[in-house]
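To: structure desk
From: M.T.
Subject: fold request, one chain
Message: Could you run this one when you get a chance? Sequence is below, nothing fancy, just the single chain.
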Amino acid sequence: MSDLNDDLPRTMFEKIWDRHRVLDREDGQTLLYVDRHLLHDGGATAFDVLRKRGVKPRAPDRTFATPDHYVATDSRTVEEIQDPRHREMVEKLARNTAEHGIRMFGLGDPNQGIIHVVGPETGLSQPGLLMVCGDSHT
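Reply: Done. Structure tokens follow.
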């Protein structure tokens, strides 16, 4: 991105990028500091990959989750999820987040909802933060 000593005007994207830059690699890739990481029930395989590598989530206190892909809008309990595969995904998210101390907005939580909406509604999303969210709703 831009040179931090540059006196030229920068876009908001450039300012946020520069504030979160940790390392610029010679191949053009940049390592960025992530302020918040949002998860949903479709990401269970990511925890499997971490286990295989023998590592844990780096910042569980900055990671938040909610089931949103495999639940109906009228489901308030896991038992109400009709499809057993979908139920297993939601149960797996609950197990994984509990295991790693990650805050989950579960089906009984009034803040549960579509993950990209939960962030702003709960105040997790703030101007200037760098957030990562693998969300197919947007």
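Reply (cont.): The mean pLDDT is 91. Let me know if you need anything else for the meeting.
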